[in-house]
Structures are given as structure tokens and as C-alpha cells.
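Q: Predict the assembly, please.
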Amino acid sequence: MATAEADVPTAALKVERGKKAPQFKGRDRWVFYAMVGIPTGLHVLLVWVPTVGSIFLSFTDWKGIRFSDITWVGLRNYNQIFTVFEKDFFQALINNTVLLVFLFLGPTLFGMFLAYSLDKSIKGTRLYQSVFYTPVVLSLAVVGFMWQSVIYSTENGLATQLFGGGEPVDWLGNQSFLISFGDTYGISKNFAAILIAIAWRHAGYIMVLYLAGLKSVDNSLKEAASIDGANEWQTFRLVTFPTLKPINVVVAVITVIEALRAFDIIFVLNTPRKTEVLSILTTNNLLGEGGGNVGRGSAYATILFLLCLGFVIWYVTNHYKSTEEGAES
Amino acid sequence: MTTTTQLPAQPKAPVKPGRILLYVFLTLTALVWLVPIVGAVFSSFRPFSETVRDGYISFPDTLTLDNYKNAWNQGDILRKYWNTWLILAPALVLTLFFSSMVAFAASRYSWKFNIFFLVLFTAGNLLPQQIIIQPLFQMYNRVELPSFLSNSGKLNGSTWGLILIHVAFQSGFCTFVLSNYMKLLPKSLNEAARIDGAGVWTLYWQIIMPLTRPALAALATLEFTWIYNDFFWAVVLEQQGADRPITSSLANLGGEFFTDDNLIAAASVYVALPTIVVYLALQKQFIAGLTLGADKG
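A: Predicted assembly structure:
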């Protein structure tokens, strides 16, 4: 104890300097370790260990019974995914991609446009914001449930009444392609119906993020641009949009991750086929009839992981590089 | 007693047609946006037979609470709310507690691995849950719990399992947001605490945490909704229908109990209500939470 006390002055100086571990006297050190260690331990154990576990298990044919049954099968699961389950896999991959592109071109741009409109000192802007944002607080599962009963009900849903021409329309069951890519793949009509419901929720999310960003745009820049003769579109493109870069990055990440994570609404609507996404394929190998196929499920999970890895790395380096620079200067 | 001063008529700027168009656009869009929610509420008060006869867009003959009564009983809604609460309350408190500690250590002290820890949590928060689920499920299946802690005798299928995964997964986002926030608090606070002889814990709990309250409030509101809205974890890790929290019980409510659309609408209202109430009551915190996360690109 006595020696620890004696170290204090120099230790105290070291904390503020350099990047060495902060040095504390006796008790404080353990407090510090516990504060970092316990939460990190839980996070690593339940998030990162399983992630690495998925990658490892994807090279095995484990059925989830005993550890001693784990046998290494190399790339067999991947091979099967690309041959035997080719149709399911590529349709799911297409659906994820369609969802991603659709989210960007549809609700993301629309949400940005809503934010831009609401930023023009609109009367009752709070009310509009609340309306557009309310769907965002609902889970996609309940969004699916709601749309199923109100909008897409085959016999008397609102969509049927408005666009059905007096005939029942099976919005969520129609597997025929709205747009087809070749004979086997395409965007099915029931998937398109789900996309609309997802868009309803996504647009408000994006709107809130951009509204916050737009508030921080310097008005004098915009004025200067308009004095220089720029029209509204030019001002937006050349002045406003570039200053929104941090928000753009966040929105891009959120949209990509949402597109890869999508699960609830598709699961809850339980439409027969053609609406599967990768997350559903992963889970199908765990629950229900296909249950217990840990190896193949993990292979789907690993593919999903590789797809989002690039974005995660890009975002994290982007963020912490700028933080580092900020801290150093 | 009102004192209205008659101001000389201000020279009004002429209303541009563009602005009228903008209002028309916003109002129409807002009305369209409300359709699914208003539609669900509206049809939930009507007998299904009437909707079938007259269609969704029709003047109601009868307004009734029958759908709510039936949904409440058949869906066992009270129990599902209670299940949710048992998971939500501890998960929320622990998430904020754990992530604030890591955020504090990583943002208030300069040490070798602080960026590493922040990257770990930030990246963890961006992973899709399905990447984790297979090994997690197997892990949970192998942890035995005494029967008074878990109906299934395992971590799998227990409230504890769900609490733990929520804390582990959500602490990614919260650590990220809180460290951004704590970093902006004056550096001199550390200095002053040290001179006063205050230890690490005192600095954290009595000085930094009270100053972080706005961020904690914002996060609490946001996390309330996110944990409440969880569907995936509970569907996989809590497979006993009766023990499921409310959002994930939607997975079986649809087919098993609810035969007509108006009953489904009433059930949706039950599920949606808590988050909408929290959102409307704490709108400011809510939006602050989201934008805190987006503040620093």
C-alpha cells in the first residue's frame, strides 16, 4: 500500500501524457479494470465470440447436438448453397439487394426531401414531423401486422378497395414477378408489397436525421450562393448537401444495415415464398422444419457478415480517424 | 382581460405559389402517412362483419370494444405486457449502466486501448443479429439454470437470456453515443477530482454521470422503444409462446388466434400503444437520442 501511495505524483502526471494505460493507486486500478472489463466481457462473449463461432461452424456439418460431433467439411456448406440451394440463395440475395437499392432511391431520398421541405420555416412543422416519425417507433413486425389487416387484406383491404377494381387481390401471397430477371429470379409482387410498408417506416427515420443536419447548415452560405445567382437546386447540390456529409455517412450506414438486417416484417407476414432474405435463410436453419442445421445456417450468416463487413470497416475507420485527428489537434 | 395592441398592418410578403404547393404536398403526404395507423384504430372499433359488408372505407353503424376484449383475452395481452416489462426494465438499466462505464473509461482517460474498445463496441452494434444467432442459441442451450430462475431449466427460453443479449447488443450503440457526449465535458473535471482526492468511481458516479443526464435520458427513451420492439431475439431465444414478450408474440398471434382482420388491428394497437405513448410524451428526448448518434460522422 505504502509504495502505491508513493507512486501517486508521477503516476498522476503520466495520465495526462502519452497513451500509456492510466495509472491509478491500488483501489482505483481495480475499479477501472472492472468498469471496462465487465461490460466488455459480456459484449465480447455474446456478440463477438458467436460471430467468430459462426464463421468457424460454417466449415462444419454440425447439427447442434454434441461438441464431439463437430466435423470439418471444408467448403461443403458453401458449395451446397451455391448448387442445391442456389434458387433460394440467389433469390434472397436479389431481395436484399433490391431492398437496399429501393431504400436508397425511395424512402431515403423521400425522407431527405421531407426534411428539406420542413426546414423552410413551415407553420406546424412539429405536427408534420410527428406524423412522419410515428411509424418509426413501431417495430417492423407490428408494421407488417397492421398493413396486413388494414391495407393488404385480400377481400376488403384498403389497397384492394382502391386498386382491386372490385376483385379480391392477394397482395401478400402473389409470388409472380413484378419485374423478372431471367426465368428463375425477379422481384415478386408480394415482396414489392412488403417494400412499400418498409418504406413507410424508413422515410421518417431519415427525415429526422436530415432535419437535425439541416439545422446546422450555415444560412449565410445559402444566402451568399443565391446572391451569386445560384438557383435552389444548385444551392442545395453545391452548398447544403456537401455540408451534410456527416449525416450522409450515418444515413448510408443505417440504410445498408437495415437492408441487410431486415427480418421481422418478412417473418411475421410469413408469405409463402419469393420474399426470403438472407436473415430468413439463416434463421430457417435454426427454427422449424429445417432446424438444427447449424453448419448451413452459419454459412448463410457468414455470407451476411462478409456483405456488411466492408461497410462496418468503412464507417468505423471514417469515424475514429476524424476523432483521433480532433483529439490530437 | 386581454390587451391586444393593434399593430399597423405589416406589409405582408406576397405568398408565393411555391409555398402553397409545399403546404399542399406536405399535408397530403401527412394524410397518406396516417392511413395505416388511423385505419387500424378505426377498424379495430368495428365488428368484422360490418367491414366485410361495407368495406374499409364506409361509415360505421356500430362502434364496439369487442375486438379489444377478444384480443385481450385470446392473445393473453396482459401477460405479454408483463413478460415484456420483466425483460425491458432490467435490460434498459443495465445497458445504460454498462455502456456509461465503458464510455467513461474510454473518453475521460487517455490510454493505450481506448480507441480499440470504442471500435469494438461501435462495430458490434452494426452487425446483423442473424450473424450471432446460431452459436448464441447453442451457447444458451448449454447453460443450465435452476428451475426457479427459468421455466426451461436453461438460459435458452429464459427471461435472463433475453436480458443479457439485449444488454450485450445494445451497449454497442450506447457506448458510442455516450463516449461522444462525455468527451465534450471539460477536461478540467478530471483534474479537479484528482486534486480533491476523489477516486475513479466518485468521478464517474458523482461528477460525470449527473452531467451526462441529457444523453442518458435521450438514450433511455430510444432504447425503451428498441428493446420493446425486439422481435428477433425473442422469437429465437424464447420459443415458448406464453413466455414471449408482446412484440414477438405477433409471430403466433396471427395464425393461431386471430381469425379476422379487425381483431388483428386491435392486437396491433395493443402492441403499438406503449411505444407511441412514450414517443408522444418524450418526443424531444427521442429525437435527441437519434441525432446524438448521428452527430459525429
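Chain B has a mean pLDDT of 86. Chain B touches chain A through 109 residues (CB under 8 Å).
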